Amino acid sequence: MVHVGRPGHHRALPAADLDDDALRTDVLAALLATASEPPLVWLTRPGDGEVEDGDHAWSRAARAAGAQVGRAVPFVVVTRQGWTDPADGHRRTWRRLRDRRRA
Q1: What is the β-pairing status of strands 40-44 and 2-6?
Q2: DSSP codes of every residue in 63-98
Q3: pTM greater than 0.85 (yes/no)
Q4: Secondary structure class of 70 (helix, strand, coil)
Q5: How far apart are CA 79 and CA 84, in angstroms?
Q6: 33, 42, 32: which is closest to 8 by C-alpha?
Q7: Taken in order 48, 12, 7, 60, is the CA torsion positive or negative?
Q8: For residues 67 and 86, what is the distance between their CA atoms, to the nearest angstrom?
Q9: How far apart are CA 47 and CA 28, in angstroms?
Q10: Of 30, 32, 60, 87, which residue is the least packed, with the fewest Cβ within 10 Å?
């Protein structure tokens, strides 16, 4: 899923349906243009935090869409293990804590 907005107040679309660079850019530009506060763009996907080809494609689309609407737009890829910025490789990881007590 690709998300535009802020956590708790965002719009999300299935990323797999947007498999063309120009289409990704156009959709993100339209969503960014309607955002009322400075938005973030993030891609959620399964797997580990290693950067994949699709991550780079979405990162390029986010930068291009941000340029179209005149905003610098942060972009990260979020997985269960953490988040990564494909443009510069910056990342944060975490461990999921689970309550092991029986209910």
Answers
A1: antiparallel
A2: HHHHHHHT----EEEEETTEEE-TTT--EEE-----
A3: yes
A4: coil
A5: 9
A6: 42
A7: positive
A8: 18
A9: 23
A10: 30
Query: Which pLDDT value is given to residue 87?
Result: 92
Whether 94 and 102 have beta carbons less than 8 Å apart is answered as: no
Contact (Cβ atoms closer than 8 angstroms) between residue 54 and residue 91: no
- Given a contact cutoff of 8 angstroms between Cβ atoms, the answer to whether 57 and 24 are in contact is yes
In degrees and rounded to multiples of 5, residue 27 shows phi and psi of -65, -45
What digits encode the pLDDT tens for the residues 32-51? 998 878 899 999 999 888 89
Interatomic CA distance for residues 38 and 24, integer angstroms: 19
Token look-up 């996907």 returns 45
Q: Give the model confidence (pLDDT) of 6-17 as tens digits.
A: 988 899 999 988
Show the tokens assigned to 102: 């029986």
Q: Which amino acid is at 45?
A: R
